[in-house]
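Chapter review. Work through the record for Putative leucine-rich repeat domain, L domain-containing protein before attempting the end-of-chapter questions.
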Amino acid sequence: MIDVSENKLQGRLPRSLANCVMLEFIVLSDNQFNDVFPFWLGNLPELKLLAMRHNGFYGVIGKPKKNLCFPELRILDLSHNNFSGKFPFEFIFSGNAMRGITASYSTYMETYSNLKVSAYVQPFTYEYSNTMTNKGVDRYYEKVQEDLGVVDISSNKFEGTIPEFMWKLKGLRFLNISHNIFTGYIPSILGNLALLESLDLSQNKLCGGIPHQFTQLTFLAEFNVSHNNLTGPIPHERQFTTFDHTSYEGNPGLCGDALPKKCGINPKTPLPPTATFEENDSDFGIEVDWKFVLAGFASGLVVGVVLADTVITRRHEWIIEIVAKLIKVLRRRPIS
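Structure tokens for Putative leucine-rich repeat domain, L domain-containing protein:
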């Protein structure tokens, strides 16, 4: 292992590191290195952790000239550098062990050695430790689990779309691509990363909606898509009921229970009044109903008086004549 973190080292990385074929753990974080991405380290067959955060690494990480694919890499931290262009997920992780990691691992990353003192040989074990950003907070890990899959490329200038290739990294637990220039939609297929615990896509230029498939991520404890161009409703099932507005703020097109903007309600369109019935006689609705009742009562009274006057004051013969005419009219109507 090599850990030179938290110093003031400058310049380029020594290319001789490519000859250290037994290296499993390289920590270069918190220095002043000024170099391009060391693709030549991808030839190290045992390398599991590569941490380069908080340095001056720069440039586009292009396709390697040789088949250098970091076969055992589980933790990659490139955060807080000056990388640009598209991030080549498919080249760095094409034959990667993270694709086969399961939750069955219970051991920690460690190395074994023998210390020879005089005529005695003393075996010892050294467990790897590292500082990583987990759920938005820098955490120091005294031990690093073998099954921990981490990709942190935050705070660079990476651009382009999020590749669907990412779903193949089955062992991925922490994914942080925040503070970059990623565009396009969030791939719904990322909902197949069953072990994912932390997902930070904030401070990019992503558009579209939050895939409903993310509700399948039952281990997800930290979720942040703030300050993008997302639209539509936020999921409101399972673990998504635990995330507050800070996970979504800065997306005017989003709506949901965690936000001031609720879904399905247009504030400019008044809701139709609900029909209510009260016993108070002074209510406007009740007054209107009584007006119709009184109008109907009055018209019925008039018709009744007229008919009564006709029946009482007219001659009997005249009534018989009217009845006869009515019978003739009824006989002419077709039978339905």
